[in-house]
Amino acid sequence: MSVLVDDDTRVVVQGITGGEGKFHAEQMMEYGTNVVAGAVPDKGGQEVSGVPVYDTVHEAVDEENADTSVIFVPPAFAGDAIFESLDSELDLAVAITEGIPTQDMARVNKRLSETETRLIGPNCPGLITPGEAKLGILPGNIFAEGNVGLVSRSGTLTYQVVDSLTNRGIGQTTAIGIGGDPIIGTDFVDALELFEDDPDTDAIVMCGEIGGEDEEEAAAFIDEYVDTPVAGFIAGRTAPPGKRMGHAGAIVSGSGTGTAESKISALNDAGVPVGDTPEEVADHIEEFLA
Amino acid sequence: MKLHEYQAKTVFADAGIPTPDSQLASDVDGVVSAAEEIGYPVAVKAQVQVGGRGKAGGIKLVEDADEAREAADSILGMDLKGYHVDRVLVEEAVDFVNELYVGITMDRGEGKPVAMVSTKGGVNIEEVAEEDPDAIAREHIDPSFGMHPYQARKAVYDAGVDQSVARDVSSVLTTLYQLWDDKDGADAEINPLMVTADDEVIAADAVMNIDEDALFRQPELAEMEEEAAGGDELEQKADEYGFDYVRLDGNVGIIGNGAGLVMTTLDLVDHYGGQPANFLDVGGGAKAARIANALDMVFSDDNVDSVVFNIFGGITRGDEVARGINEALEQFDEIPKPVVVRLAGTNWEEGMEILNEDLVTVEQTLEDAVQRAVEYAGEVNDQ
């Protein structure tokens, strides 16, 4: 079992004719993902690595029954590409693109509240159900099938924690990178809810970082609704206020909201141990599963 | 990207928001002639990107030419919280009876813009938000419709603004939202919005932060960016290279890929008793030349005593990273600062083979690499 993605998922890749889109479409297929179509304006009728390309996402849905899109469209056009996914009534859209203007995402966010489509990202590595399928750019070889759900705001930090788990023989049900932007589709609470409802997920890792209040909200949600044991990690303990630490969303405000201390204490209050190092997170998970 | 006060005021004034008469000056004579033209009293205001300019001596009110000369002399060339002042704004001093606050920002929790109004202007609004949150009226805006006129009125009346100026304040707020929307603002703020004895409103300060991800479609503002940049020399160099870089106070240089992992590396340096000198994210898929540039940047920071390189490859390849590190280090007869490298993920084994181990220390895990770099930095300090 898993959440959101499995080997039945039928994927359309938006931007499949670009360098990144083509490379990662191939990587996804190599991992076993069912990539059924590409969608690129004015490129309909072409084929990329054996995958038929359509001019619009609507056509890809009509012709190939695509139910999920993965978006590798440059930032200036990515907001529009997400709208196209939402208006095509897909089940899931995964936006990998980094650097989408925040006001574009505010408009997307409004549309999201009116549709049934779930959005992951943007500015995220995607998600993977080990042994079945991956949507995005995660390196498949570090993951293993197992019973730990993982949700994270950061890509490479996810790899670091997964590596620690896999090296100890602990596999994953699904790992979701929700992205490092201020406005994202699926947040911690949404992902925690999915894992809590998944009978095969026996423990959850949640990797947060400074900025915003999503981790505090997640802590409150865990306290009330989550019985599955959760271990946490928060990046950015040493970040100075007012400086954007790479991710657009990773910034401690001048008034001190969004600090690592606030997030760690909220999680601790909800009974979630927070590791000082990625290895300590793996220690906690190992204890949960013992 | 934060505009200077004089830039933001120009943008606001062009949109029809009342601002005091002002001129930019960069030498003492320029300040005096600007002041004469505007008419005393005037304020002489340092144009640097730091808060609390007044308390730090960067804003002075002057009554005549002698005072103007004296103020210009002391402010121009001064070091204000680490920023060199090379320009001042000479501005008409406004006689006010009230100071208000108006602002627009993105409420990331709600995922939509919010307009804010308060009668407690002229002080740090974040302190007001903390101590007396009810003193700030908030109105969330649906970005697909923009701010309805009634919402501006509602925010203004909710804040308790006097009826005699409510219409003008609403109009300023409406214009501010349009500017924020048109210019891809992150924050737009007037604090204080002064109210004069005859019920005129005037923007005595102006703050405008632009979403850097949207500069591609704001060419006029992007041109202002060069002027607005200022500040730390290394941070400017990082901009040229296109790195996400933040300079810190410690002596362990840090290079990695991906914001979360680089932040984690900083935290681990601290955890193991060291002090991070910087945050440097080379981004995804960095090639050898980019890696060499990163190392060059961190070496050029005099505070750095050792460097830890932590790469977990997804789309970044270990062999490219190793080539870049060799390339950067082989140009030195003697390695200027010890470098510790940890490679994992895509092509890490190939990378390990390529790495010249005479030039760097290799560690297998993140924890070991950080501890080794902290140890090296400590040894340098003990010498």
Automatic annotation (TrEMBL), chain A:
Annotated PROSITE patterns: SUCCINYL_COA_LIG_1, SUCCINYL_COA_LIG_2
Active site as annotated: 247
Functional pathway: Carbohydrate metabolism; tricarboxylic acid cycle; succinate from succinyl-CoA (ligase route): step 1/1
Documented EC number(s): 6.2.1.5
Entry binding sites for CoA: 17-20, 43, 96-98
SUPFAM superfamilies the record matches: NAD(P)-binding Rossmann-fold domains, Succinyl-CoA synthetase domains
Catalytic activity entry: GTP + succinate + CoA = succinyl-CoA + GDP + phosphate; acetate + ATP + CoA = acetyl-CoA + ADP + phosphate; succinate + ATP + CoA = succinyl-CoA + ADP + phosphate
Keywords: Ligase, Nucleotide-binding, Tricarboxylic acid cycle
GO CC list: succinate-CoA ligase complex (ADP-forming)
Superkingdom assignment: Archaea
Ranges of residues in domain CoA-binding: 4-100
An annotated GO BP: tricarboxylic acid cycle
Positions bound to substrate: 159
A GO term, aspect molecular function: succinate-CoA ligase (GDP-forming) activity
Principal EC category: ligase
InterPro entries noted in UniProt: Cit_synth/succinyl-CoA_lig_AS, Citrt_syn/SCS-alpha_CS, CoA-bd, CoA_lig_alpha, NAD(P)-bd_dom_sf, SUCC_ACL_C, Succinyl-CoA_synth-like
Classification via Gene3D superfamilies: NAD(P)-binding Rossmann-like Domain, Succinyl-CoA synthetase domains
Similarity section: Belongs to the succinate/malate CoA ligase alpha subunit family.
Reported function: Succinyl-CoA synthetase functions in the citric acid cycle (TCA), coupling the hydrolysis of succinyl-CoA to the synthesis of either ATP or GTP and thus represents the only step of substrate-level phosphorylation in the TCA. The alpha subunit of the enzyme binds the substrates coenzyme A and phosphate, while succinate binding and nucleotide specificity is provided by the beta subunit.
Assembly notes: Heterotetramer of two alpha and two beta subunits.
Entry protein name: Succinate--CoA ligase [ADP-forming] subunit alpha
Species of provenance: Natrinema pallidum DSM 3751
Taxonomic lineage: Archaea, Methanobacteriati, Methanobacteriota, Stenosarchaea group, Halobacteria
TrEMBL record, chain B:
Gene that encodes the chain: sucC
Entry keyword set: ATP-binding, Ligase, Magnesium, Metal-binding, Nucleotide-binding, Tricarboxylic acid cycle
PANTHER family: SUCCINATE--COA LIGASE [GDP-FORMING] SUBUNIT BETA, MITOCHONDRIAL (PTHR11815:SF10), SUCCINYL-COA SYNTHETASE BETA CHAIN (PTHR11815)
Role description: Succinyl-CoA synthetase functions in the citric acid cycle (TCA), coupling the hydrolysis of succinyl-CoA to the synthesis of either ATP or GTP and thus represents the only step of substrate-level phosphorylation in the TCA. The beta subunit provides nucleotide specificity of the enzyme and binds the substrate succinate, while the binding sites for coenzyme A and phosphate are found in the alpha subunit.
Keyword tRNA processing included in the entry's annotation: no
Gene Ontology molecular function: any one: succinate-CoA ligase (ADP-forming) activity
ATP-grasp domain span: 9-242
GO BP terms, alphabetized: succinyl-CoA metabolic process; tricarboxylic acid cycle
Signal peptide region: none
Gene source species: Natrinema pallidum DSM 3751
Catalyzed reactions per annotation: succinate + ATP + CoA = succinyl-CoA + ADP + phosphate; GTP + succinate + CoA = succinyl-CoA + GDP + phosphate
EC number from the UniProt entry: 6.2.1.5
Lineage summary: Archaea, Methanobacteriati, Methanobacteriota, Stenosarchaea group, Halobacteria
Subunit structure: Heterotetramer of two alpha and two beta subunits.
The protein, known as: Succinate--CoA ligase [ADP-forming] subunit beta
SUPFAM superfamilies: Glutathione synthetase ATP-binding domain-like (SSF56059), Succinyl-CoA synthetase domains (SSF52210)
Pathway in which the depicted protein is active: Carbohydrate metabolism; tricarboxylic acid cycle; succinate from succinyl-CoA (ligase route): step 1/1
Residue positions binding ATP: 45, 52-54, 91, 94, 99
